[in-house]
Amino acid sequence: MFPLHQSLNPNSFFKKPILNFNQLIVPTSSISFSRGNPYLTSMVLGKTQLPTNSHGGPAPVAAAVTAEERRGFVDEMRAVAMKLHTKEQAKEGEKEVEGPEEMSPAKWEPSVEGYLKFLVDSKVVFDTMERIVDEAPVAYYAEFRNTGLERSESLATDLEWFKVQGHLIPEPSATGLKYATFLEELAKKDPQAFICHFYNVYFAHSAGGRMIGKKVAEKILNKKELEFYKWDG
Question: Which residue stretches belong to region Disordered (predicted)?
Fold first, then answer.
C-alpha cells in the first residue's frame, strides 16, 4: 500500500496521514503480518513492549528469523486471496464452485474496437486522477505529482496512432465517465478512500495490466507495444 505512516495510537489512526515517498515498501524484516509475530500484534494495539531479561534490561534479539517472518505481507495477502478462488480460476484455489458465474468463462478474443473502448475509458480515468493530484483539493495529494506513473500523455499518443491507422476513436462510455465523476467526489469528501482507488488503478495497470496489454498486442496489434505500457527507467 502507499506509505501512509500513522501514529501507533489507535485513536488517531488514519486521521492525519503523512506521506513518505522514500519508503514505498514496508521492510519485511521489521514488520511481518505473521500470526506468530507478537511484536506486530502489540504494535498495532499501541502497546509495544520490548522483551527484558531477568535484570530488567533489554533482552538480546535473535538475528535469525523464520521463513514465515521473512515473507512479506503482500505474499501473505496473495496466498489468502488465491484460496478464495475456485480451482478453475486459480491453481491455488480452494473454493467450491457454487454457481455458473464461478465457472471459467469462454476463451476471450480481443478486438480492436473493444480495445479502443478500453483505452478511451482508461484515459478518462487517468486524466481525472492526474487532474486531482495537480489541483490537490487535499494538500498531500500534491505529493503524487510527477511520479513517472502518469499515463494520460501516453494514452493520447496511442489513440492518435490508432487514428492514423484509420480506426475511429469512440467517445468515453457512460461507465467510464461515471467512475471519473465518482473519483472527483471521493477526492474531496474521503481522501483515504481516494488514495485506495488511486493505488489500485496504478498498481493494477503496472502489474496485471501490462501482461494483458502484451497478450492483446500479440493477438491484434502485430506485437506492437503501446506507450501506455512503457515507463522510463
Answer: 87-106
